[in-house]
Amino acid sequence: MIVTVRNDGPLIVSIPHAGLEIPEDIAPALISPARARHDADLYVDQLYAFAFKLGATLIRTTTSRTVIDVNRDPSGQTLYPGQFTTGLCPRVTFDGDPLYHPGQEPDETEIARRRAAWFDPYHAALTAEIDRLRDLHPAIVLYEAHSIRSVVPKLFDGRLPEFNIGTNSGQSCAPELAHSIAAICAEQQRSHVIDGRFKGGWTTRNYGEPDKGVHAIQMELAMRTYLTEVPAADWPPRYDDLHAAQAQATLRPILSAAIDFARTQ
């Protein structure tokens, strides 16, 4: 299901990976529902709920990224050539563990079905909101809200910075937007990087057109920024309001800066 909460400010917060729902006709093919949900961007929808009060429109899907990843290139082309990543309909987890029983992985027909059922509606909703807000504002910011475990050896070395800002190497938004967000992180002594391991997924790359007034930026939070991470055997961790509030103390000025940026264009 696609959930859109409309507002009229020049900011869209897109949340493509917080969903946990797995349809009944897909679940039997999976080795484990828990494993299928392990790579979710846990609680990111709760974390960013405050954005509506700032004037932002929020769009999210309740469907698990294991069913279909709405932030991947629908052609199947990898976003990070030469590096491990998961695809449009992932067959393995971020740790490389198989998601499906042997022989039950989605084939081309099933991938096409899932794209029509979940991927296309998400991007239709996103496109509609971009068009609506561009009619109201000379420029808007599309902010892709993500999170990931702080340590995922198959994806990156060591421990991820808290705030990972992605701009597709400066192509998806004006550099001053990324720099203003990085400055807020620095002021609050938060570890951060611009275009490190995560440079932005397909949504950021596809919709970011700064010369046409659409500035797209991705924020990949290390989960320790807003919750207490636990061992895999105890996953998932619980949502912690106090810990989340500490992260929101940085995220709130970041989103406000994005709105101020759009209004000055």
Automatic annotation (TrEMBL):
GO molecular function: N-formylglutamate deformylase activity
Entries under SUPFAM superfamilies matching the protein: Zn-dependent exopeptidases (SSF53187)
Domain of life from the UniProt record: Bacteria
Keyword Ribosomal protein listed: no
UniProt EC number: 3.5.1.68
EC top class named in words: hydrolase
UniProt keyword Hydrolase, yes or no: yes
Pfam families from the UniProt entry: FGase
Entry-linked InterPro entries: HutG_amidohyd (IPR010247), N-FG_amidohydro (IPR007709)
Keywords attached to this entry: Hydrolase
Descriptive protein name: N-formylglutamate deformylase
Species per Swiss-Prot/TrEMBL record: Sphingomonas suaedae
Species lineage: Bacteria, Pseudomonadati, Pseudomonadota, Alphaproteobacteria, Sphingomonadales
